[in-house]
Design goal:
3 helices; alpha+beta; single chain; 13 strands; 3-stranded antiparallel β-sheet
């Protein structure tokens, strides 16, 4: 009888340890809202050179650094830049902040939701002439990265992670409003 009690106790202790380890693990909460990372604008009655000039003017007026520009193929990539970001509201499935350019999936490390100190994003832009003579501009959120800082008594460490994220459409609206003027 004593052996059965000892085995039951061991099983309970093992189950408790497994439960504790599982609850302290990392967990990613996927985005549930309706997001897209590709947006399109068609501008009738303008030349492709004029559209390119508007894209370059937008970059200059918003201090966006251009990483790659290939006018012949119609391709431009912005260099990584710090962005306004937000988590998704659990009940509405919309960004918690209305000014967020990027919506991040929540990530739990241990018992806490991680809060990045720096979030950066990179967009690409494609400027093409359609068959009917209109200018078509497509933007894509290429990737989002975030930094988490850890400290010890003597040192501070930074860890960069690739984020599970989507565009909220705010950047693209701002971009297309300026380009479409």
């Amino acid at each position: 009888m004593e052996i059965k009690k000892a085995n039951c106790f061991r099983i309970l202790v093992l189950a408790f340890i497994i439960f504790c380890c599982h609850s302290c693990g990392n967990k990613l909460f996927p985005l549930k809202g309706n997001y897209t990372n590709e947006y399109c604008l068609i501008i009738p009655g303008t030349s492709i050179d004029s559209a390119w000039q508007r894209v370059i003017d937008f970059c200059a007026s918003n201090n966006l650094s251009v990483k790659v520009i290939d006018k012949a193929s119609g391709f431009l990539t912005f260099d990584r830049a710090a962005v306004n970001w937000s988590y998704e509201d659990d009940s509405t499935h919309k960004p918690e902040s209305i000014s967020a350019w990027v919506v991040l999936a929540k990530k739990r490390e241990g018992a806490f939701i991680t809060k990045p100190q720096l979030v950066t994003g990179e967009w690409s832009v494609r400027v093409r002439l359609t068959d009917d003579g209109k200018v078509r501009i497509i933007t894509n959120l290429v990737f989002v990265k975030y930094n988490i800082y850890y400290s010890t008594k003597y040192n501070r460490y930074s860890k960069e992670n690739l984020a599970v994220a989507s565009s909220s459409g705010i950047f693209e609206r701002l971009f297309f409003d300026k380009i479409g003027e």
